[in-house]
Amino acid sequence: MKKLLILAYDFPPYVSVGGLRPYNWYRYLKAFDVEPIVITRQWNNAHGNHLDYIAAGNSDQDIVEESEFGTIIRTPYHPNFANRLMLKHGEKKHRILRKSVSAYYEFAQFLAPVGPKVGLYEGARAYLKTHKVDAIIATGDPFVLFSYASKLSKEFGIPWIADYRDPWSHNEEHRKTLIQKKWNSYFEKKIVSTASHIRTVSKFVHSKIDQLIPNKPYSITPNGYDTMVIDKIKTIEQNKEELCVSFVGTIYNWHPIESFLRGANQFVTEHPNAKIRFKFYGTNLTEELTRMVNEQFPHLKNHVLITPKMQNHELLEKLAADNVMLLFNYYSYMGTKIFDYLGIRRKMIMCYENDAEANLLKQKFYSVDESGAESKQLQADLIHETNSGIIVKDSHHLQQVLQELYTEFEEKGFIACDSVGVENYSRKIQVERLAELVKEIGG
User: Fold this and answer.
1) What is the pLDDT of residues 392-403, one digit of tens each?
2) Could you report the per-residue pLDDT of 291-316, keeping only the tens digit for each?
3) Which of 34, 121, 282, 407 has the fewest CB atoms lying closer than 10 Å?
4) CATH 3.40.50.2000-classified regions of the chain
5) Is 413 left (phi over 0), alpha (psi -120 to 50) or beta?
6) CA–CA gap between residue 310 and residue 374 (Å, rounded)
7) If you classify domain 2-78+116-224+427-441 with CATH, what class do you get?
8) pLDDT band at 4 (very low <50, low <70, confident <90, very high)
9) Helix (H) or strand (E) segment spanning residue 174
10) How much of the chain is helix, strand and coil, in % rounded to 5?
11) For 227-425, which CATH superfamily applies?
């Protein structure tokens, strides 16, 4: 059986869509004759919000977990000075000092083994001194994991795979200044050139990588849904008491959330007796959403539910009992939540295809250079392909869609979803492809 060392910063129990990709490698690889060894950091989830990302780990020693699926090594995590300041004094104090310290580590971590993420490198190196593996895979963001994989590959003579969930130097979040742009481009080209193979989630992301590292062997492996969890919840029936429209995860500043809430508020104002609820699970804007509803859309107060983050299996159980899944347009990106929506077979509505207010938000905030994109409506393409939902054109169309959905719910007690070809997006199938790659490059 081949062995694969996995460098994954985000990993359960931390609640993150980025952690689901490597978790499914861990969960399914042995079924295809590859043993996974995951190197991650310790997560204690003490805060239940974004502060968990910078909170200290549980131990100063590696925590090793063995299971029927493989091995997980959870390395110590020590917050840097900027992290400690935030944890102690909150987000509003010492901002300039915190930004300066964080910037130092963002640059220095590519020159020397320093910074709060270095525990993964040290844990992986210690493991490789006494154990043999056939290949290494690092999944980014954070992309310093690519640097660790490259160093380990060189030291121990092991081929490595670069797995991109998002672009690196072509992501505007990583190139806010000219120095950042040049710095990241230099190290991306230098580091990823040493990889044996590149995996990423879409042709668009690969087109950006290929601008820096052309002619490198690559494969496209989109995100997907967890077959095991979906199988456990497939018998859960939709709620029949009220029409529940649900959204999961991060709301970005280019998302037309205010427009959507305005439309929802208009609907409940015109239909005061409507049994309808809009649910937001694990959003990053809990306080902002609450304030927006209370101050701008008071008619929504009894129709909006906002919940904290929760583990993926628990989240999917709740979603399966809801009726309609809400997406905001990611344009040239696919995102990840759309695959869970596909897996639970609930009708999606995507806002918006071509809305004036949303277009202005995109122009102002969307941080992706879309040049070279074959499609700038990837989610809409997938919804059309799988017949899994409604593409909402604009805020006016939203009113019509809400009315049609509510009428269907009143008549049937559920919302039909006649999707097709969903099984093609099972993560288990995608893990099989990874196993084949490991066997190929691992010799």
Assistant:
1) 999 999 999 999
2) 999 999 999 999 999 998 888 889 99
3) 407
4) 2-78+116-224+427-441, 227-425
5) left
6) 35
7) alpha beta
8) very high
9) none
10) 45, 15, 35
11) Glycogen Phosphorylase B; (3.40.50.2000)
